[in-house]
């Protein structure tokens, strides 16, 4: 019957081609009346079937799509009954190596909502067999085909779409890994962190370090004064930005929606990268189950490392909803969150893509608000950032200070940047992307350990805008130093990577960003890291001068000047930080603020430790991703996710 590959025919003979074309065209969806005989076998009554049809019409999808999304019947059970009804054989497993499919066809099938409708395999006897996994099945048309071509029909098998999709994804692993690790580097090598510094940057950094060593040896006090001056400049730039943002006011907006028509709503893809998250899988599934979006137009991808056996086992122990898929990323460097996301992106079909972390509990209407923002704007709006709100701020002094930082960032800094159209570094989660813009900008950089900040800068350089929405995502902060320090080290390291990447050609970056965004980038990436490094230097200098005086030393003008500079920096830095933080706290969050005032010096000392640690890692292990562990908070209700029997 002609050679079929991913629904296409080759002209082996005219009759075979016409049969293949006719089989591939059996995709006009059947209404509920055509499904009733099959549903009767599955003990689904007519009344329930017509309710499913009503929801399908409201959502603008076919009956089959809504039926599977409803959870009334499993995909396997439905397709087995379908095969029985049509008199065709049912295939339970597909050997990926038996698929006759080109690489581009496999990737196209993975990126299509319904997957591959028709595929060709070669069985163990060397015979070609056609697999059908129609997502919009026309039952009478397929029955007619089977009756008209009985001989050809002996070589047709029914397979459930997810089984065929798993086989295609396994076969496409090399292509997906190539896309994940090389796509951005091939499109825009100057915007990839694959190499931390280019030739001229490395030469400048090396020359500066050698010069610093010689200057410190031959003229220690002048060198120390110059260093303090440079550090003070970075420190003051951060203070000034906080003050400007505070004086600029904060917009307290509430999300507002127009009437929502489900038929108008597009397919929305949600990506969650998981690594060693077995403990909180139940919490995650509860949070995802609360998302308000038509289930027939929602696809959730849980992206796991293939060798993360504990997390995969925890997922297999759950009866996942039909719209949730587990994607396994093969082992291979770099082992980073953005690499995993880049691997999964070609396996999504949504017009919009949301990104969450494993511990997130997004507001149920967050997707709806993001969609309204995109719909009411033009194609240049590439991303909207939802605020992150810390729910465990009372657990420890570390989580309390972390919550204060997040309040300032997501309630003041990012909205201020968005209102002015400046470059906006994204948060690591609760980003909602216009898929076309995300792909045009090259997606996530797999070699950058703060891919969110880098992507925010790159989107701006490509001419896109980023905005904020108001329905928050609840998440937990680290509660101890052991958890907090590696995370903050990774953030600092990624900011340095991002700054070096976008400063490879400063004039091009300035031209593409514009002067205001260019200056913001200097402060938010270089300035924040340098100020954290400087804080430790300020205290070390102060302690050193104090010890020198205690042991009989005499104050000279140089020491006095250093103490004045250091004291001014610390006082102004703390004041600006606390002032901005206080202004963003709700009334219920302000009691006990004095404790945060007292903890600020200790917290900033920790930030300095993280910054110096990041410098060390940039040299020895620049692409290492330090995992932040998360704890489970809730017990999963059995009605939402049931353990497998």
Structure described in brief:
With 645 residues, the chain is an alpha/beta fold.
Notable characteristics:
2 domains; disordered C terminus; elongated; 24 helices; Spore Coat Polysaccharide Biosynthesis Protein SpsA, Chain A; alpha/beta; 7-stranded mixed sheet
Describe the protein's architecture and organization.
The chain has 645 residues and is an alpha/beta fold. The protein has two domains: 3-168, no CATH class; 172-181 and 216-645, Spore Coat Polysaccharide Biosynthesis Protein SpsA, Chain A, CATH 3.90.550.10. Helices cover 54% and strands 11% of the residues. It contains 24 helices and 17 strands. The strands form four sheets. A seven-stranded mixed β-sheet has the order 10-9-8-11-15-13-16, with helices on both faces. The longest helix has 36 residues, at 515-550.
- Write the CATH homologous superfamily of the largest domain: Spore Coat Polysaccharide Biosynthesis Protein SpsA, Chain A
| CATH architecture field of the largest domain | Alpha-Beta Complex
CATH topology of the largest domain: Spore Coat Polysaccharide Biosynthesis Protein SpsA, Chain A
Structural classification: alpha/beta
Oligomer: single chain
Blueprint (SSEs and pairs):
Layout lengths: L2 E3 L2 E3 L3 H11 L7 H10 L4 H14 L3 H8 L4 H12 L2 E3 L7 E2 L2 H8 L7 E5 L5 E5 L6 H10 L1 H4 L2 E4 L1 H11 L1 H15 L11 H20 L1 H28 L20 E7 L6 H9 L8 E8 L3 H8 L7 E6 L7 H8 L7 E5 L4 E2 L3 H10 L5 E5 L2 E3 L6 H23 L11 E4 H6 L10 H11 L3 E4 L4 E3 L5 H22 L3 H8 L1 H36 L6 H28 L8 H28 L25
Parallel strand pairs: 3-7, 6-7, 8-9, 8-11, 9-10, 13-16, 14-17
Antiparallel strand pairs: 1-2, 4-5, 5-6, 11-15, 12-17, 13-15
């Amino acid at each position: 019957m002609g050679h079929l590959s991913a629904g296409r025919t080759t002209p082996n003979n005219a009759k075979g081609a016409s049969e293949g074309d006719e089989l591939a065209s059996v995709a006009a969806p059947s209404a509920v009346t055509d499904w009733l005989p099959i549903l009767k076998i599955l003990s689904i009554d007519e009344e329930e079937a017509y309710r499913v049809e009503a929801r399908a019409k409201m959502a603008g999808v076919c009956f089959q799509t809504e039926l599977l999304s409803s959870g009334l019947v499993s995909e396997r059970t439905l397709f087995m009954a379908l095969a029985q009804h049509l008199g065709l054989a049912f295939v339970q497993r597909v050997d990926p190596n038996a698929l006759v499919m080109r690489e581009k066809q496999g990737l196209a099938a993975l990126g299509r909502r319904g997957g591959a409708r028709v595929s060709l395999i070669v069985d163990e006897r060397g015979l070609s067999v056609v697999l059908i996994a129609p997502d919009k099945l026309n039952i009478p048309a397929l029955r007619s085909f089977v009756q008209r071509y009985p001989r050809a029909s002996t070589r047709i098998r029914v397979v459930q779409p997810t089984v065929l999709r798993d086989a295609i994804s396994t076969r496409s692993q090399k292509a997906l890994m190539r896309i994940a690790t090389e796509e951005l580097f091939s499109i825009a090598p100057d915007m990839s962190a694959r190499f931390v510094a280019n030739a001229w940057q490395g030469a400048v950094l090396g020359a500066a370090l050698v010069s610093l060593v010689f200057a410190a040896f031959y003229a220690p006090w002048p060198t120390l004064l110059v260093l303090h001056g440079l550090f003070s400049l970075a420190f003051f730039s951060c203070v000034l930005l906080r003050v400007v943002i505070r004086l600029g006011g904060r917009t307290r907006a509430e999300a507002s929606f127009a009437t929502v028509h489900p038929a108008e709503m597009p397919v929305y893809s949600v990506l969650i990268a998981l690594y060693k998250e077995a403990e909180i899988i139940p919490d995650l599934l509860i949070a995802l189950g609360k998302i308000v979006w038509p289930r027939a137009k929602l696809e959730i991808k849980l992206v796991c490392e293939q060798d993360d056996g504990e997390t995969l086992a925890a997922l297999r122990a759950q009866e996942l909803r039909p719209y949730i898929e587990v994607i396994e990323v093969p082992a291979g460097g770099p082992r980073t969150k953005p690499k995993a996301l880049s691997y999964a992106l070609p396996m999504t079909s949504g017009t919009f893509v949301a990104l969450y972390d494993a511990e997130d509990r997004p507001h149920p209407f967050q997707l709806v608000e993001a969609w309204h923002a995109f719909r009411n704007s033009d194609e240049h709006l590439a991303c909207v950032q939802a605020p992150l709100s810390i729910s465990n701020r009372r657990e420890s002094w570390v989580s309390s200070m972390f919550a204060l930082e997040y309040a300032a960032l997501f309630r003041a800094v990012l909205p201020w940047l968005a209102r002015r159209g400046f470059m906006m570094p994204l948060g690591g989660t609760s980003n909602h992307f216009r898929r076309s813009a995300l792909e045009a900008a090259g997606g996530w950089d797999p070699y950058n350990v703060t891919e969110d900040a880098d992507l925010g800068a790159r989107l701006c350089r490509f001419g896109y805008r980023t905005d904020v929405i108001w329905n928050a995502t609840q998440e937990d902060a680290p509660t101890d130093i052991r958890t907090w320090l590696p995370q903050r080290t990774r953030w600092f390291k990624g900011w340095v990577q991002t700054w070096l990447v976008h400063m490879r050609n400063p004039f091009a970056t300035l031209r593409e960003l514009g002067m205001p965004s260019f200056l913001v980038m200097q402060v938010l990436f270089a300035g924040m890291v340098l100020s954290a490094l400087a804080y430790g230097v300020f205290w070390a200098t102060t302690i050193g001068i104090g010890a020198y005086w205690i042991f009989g030393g005499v104050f000279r003008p140089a020491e006095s000047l250093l103490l004045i500079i250091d004291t001014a920096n610390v006082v102004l830095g703390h004041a600006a930080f606390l002032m901005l933080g206080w202004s963003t706290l709700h009334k219920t969050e302000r009691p006990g603020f004095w404790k945060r005032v007292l903890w600020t010096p200790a917290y900033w000392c920790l930030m300095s430790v993280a910054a110096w640690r990041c410098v060390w890692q940039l040299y020895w292990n620049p692409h290492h991703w330090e995992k932040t562990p998360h704890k489970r908070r809730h017990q999963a209700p059995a009605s939402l996710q049931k353990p497998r029997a």
